[in-house]
Design goal:
Elements (H helix, E strand, L loop, with lengths): L1 E6 L13 E4 L4 E3 L16 E5 L5 H4 L6 H5 L5 E6 L1 H11 L12 E4 L3 E4 L3 E8 L5 E8 L2 E6 L17 E5 L7 H7 L4 H11 L3 E5 L13 H7 L3 E3 L4 E4 L1
Parallel strand pairs: 3-4, 4-5, 5-6, 10-11, 11-12, 12-13
Antiparallel strand pairs: 1-2, 1-14, 2-3, 7-8, 8-9, 9-10
Length: 244
């Protein structure tokens, strides 16, 4: 199965990165709908799309408004957006308020159940994370495959059991170690804490994402720092694809 990193930045896009979105085209699954969500249309491989939102901050939902053409041109039979009632309400009430965005793309909005069965035999689970306004972490397990997506949270080890033994862990890393104090203040993560989380959870591979958009050319995140703790660490880039 292939995973596409469509957006790997946080807060706002810059010349290098759009904001959060991951896609599994083969099973029609997307995690978050940041400004990179416009890239989903060119990668559709199914007639249904299942979009899972970690929370309702703008850098994770704004792209839902970019999908009018694929939705209204008949390229999809349905697109379902999943999250908690409060996040779905925020999207419907504010993002799709008539004065803000008057055209209804035709999404179905569905409250997350404890377990969600996915195409291809996958089973999605979620848990709450520590972030201002809240956020969700997602994990999907297929026979012989597993993936976890953890973004917009403090890497404090409290969810290590949730991601235990996962094959691929995608985790936000908004700050370098020098920004650890800012990470605590803003509900985000820094490099060493994320690497320790992956190590303690027994993950197989770690991909860092959701980087501070103030740094365009050179990420302040040190791979050497992360790999000293968890060697199988990579920096995600927009349009990167991996097989797992």
């Amino acid at each position: 199965m292939r995973l596409h990193f469509l957006g790997t930045g946080g807060y706002h896009p810059n010349e290098r990165r759009h904001t959060a979105c991951l896609m599994l085209p083969e099973v029609g699954v997307v995690f978050d709908a940041g400004t990179s969500f416009f890239r989903v249309g060119d990668r559709l491989a199914t007639r249904e799309l299942h979009v899972f939102l970690t929370h309702a901050h703008l850098d994770h939902i704004a792209g839902l408004t970019y999908f009018i053409v694929p939705m209204l041109s008949g390229r999809l039979d349905r697109a379902v957006v999943y999250s908690t009632p409060e996040y779905l309400s925020a999207v419907q009430t504010h993002l799709f308020a008539q004065p803000v965005f008057p055209v209804n793309p035709g999404y179905e909005f569905r409250q997350l159940e404890r377990h969600v069965a996915l195409p291809g035999g996958g089973l999605l689970t979620h848990r709450r994370l520590n972030h201002p306004g809240g956020a969700l972490g997602f994990r999907v397990d297929w026979p012989g495959k597993s993936l976890a997506y953890v973004t917009d949270t403090v890497a404090d080890g409290s969810y290590a059991d949730f991601v235990k033994g996962v094959e691929v862990l995608i985790h936000e890393c908004n700050f370098s170690d020098e920004g650890a104090a800012w990470a605590e203040k803003t509900g985000h993560s820094y490099t060493s804490a994320v690497a320790r989380t992956a190590r303690d959870a027994g993950a197989k591979r770690l991909f860092l994402t959701h980087f501070d958009p103030q740094h365009v050319e050179d990420d302040p995140i040190s791979l050497n720092t992360a790999r000293a703790i968890f060697p199988a660490t990579e920096l995600a880039e927009d349009l990167m694809e991996i097989e797992f």
